[in-house]
Design the sequence.
């Protein structure tokens, strides 16, 4: 059962939240992830956050080309369309954050992070928590599948196709020491090599098993400058970071992921840090789900990230 609702502080001090859907299904092969934003809205995200004392604005959806009108080849053939959508996401993120909103972007596949993170890092000194089973550190040259949702973190760090790297401005949007990945357990061979070579901090599921999620999260926040290095954090939450028994409605499930309580504790510790400035929640595929269970879990995790607590 979800925890009781408790406003985290005086409602007048809370940021206004803006919910934006990005029904992107061009970055990966399995159909259905474009329905993710609708599933999360249907699961009651806005109402849940309003119950915590927030003002919530429904900011609509970013327009995404209908996949059936494009080439059936998929993969990197969709790269121009993915980049155009992510440029719109970038502009929306800047607009909302410039107006003092805390944007919550609902995917869609993880390629949307090209726009959400480029937007967030353009507005402030921003560290990134990448919560995912995968590294998403491939390029068109190294990717076994050619699927763009496996490339955004590499592109944000300046690797890969120029159209992705230069989205929202020329060059990399992140340094490797500006991002910490949590929940990693499935890396391609060349991707693993690239992550090590670039010094990316990864907390794998083995690290979580050995140290516990609380210590891992505190260590990640310390690396991202709890004491002044970065004044804002962006959380990029891929629902396949959770174990498939908890979140069955994802396109690339990997056994051995975060448990229900580990995921909530991660969100709770980040909430206590107080620097959250933007968020994306991605890879929910209602076609593969069971009674909208994954979307409902996403709503509860966002509530924890926004300060919901037991006491």
Sequence:
């Amino acid at each position: 059962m979800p925890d009781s609702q408790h406003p985290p502080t005086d409602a007048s001090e809370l940021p206004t939240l803006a919910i934006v859907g990005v029904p992107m299904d061009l970055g990966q092969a399995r159909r259905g992830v474009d329905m993710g934003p609708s599933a999360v809205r249907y699961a009651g995200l806005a109402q849940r956050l309003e119950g915590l004392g927030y003002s919530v604005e429904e900011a609509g959806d970013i327009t995404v080309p209908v996949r059936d009108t494009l080439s059936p080849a998929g993969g990197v053939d969709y790269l121009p369309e993915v980049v155009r959508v992510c440029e719109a996401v970038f502009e929306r993120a800047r607009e909302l954050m410039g107006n003092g909103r805390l944007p919550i972007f609902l995917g869609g596949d993880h390629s949307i992070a090209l726009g959400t993170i480029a937007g967030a890092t353009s507005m402030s000194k921003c560290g990134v928590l990448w919560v995912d089973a995968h590294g998403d550190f491939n390029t068109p040259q190294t990717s076994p599948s050619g699927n763009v949702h496996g490339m955004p973190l590499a592109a944000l760090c300046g690797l890969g196709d120029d159209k992705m790297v230069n989205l929202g401005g020329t060059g990399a949007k992140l340094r490797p020491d500006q991002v910490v990945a949590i929940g990693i357990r499935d890396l391609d061979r060349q991707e693993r090599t690239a992550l090590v070579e670039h010094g990316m901090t990864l907390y794998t599921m083995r690290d979580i098993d050995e140290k516990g999620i609380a210590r891992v999260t505190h260590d990640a926040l310390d690396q991202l400058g709890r004491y002044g290095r970065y004044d804002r954090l962006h959380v990029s939450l891929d629902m396949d970071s959770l174990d498939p028994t908890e979140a069955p409605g994802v396109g690339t499930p990997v056994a051995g992921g975060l448990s229900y309580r580990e995921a909530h504790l991660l969100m709770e510790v980040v909430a206590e840090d107080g620097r959250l400035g933007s968020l994306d929640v991605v890879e929910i595929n209602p076609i593969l789900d069971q009674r909208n269970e994954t979307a409902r879990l996403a709503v509860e995790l966002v509530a924890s990230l926004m300060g919901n607590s037991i006491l």
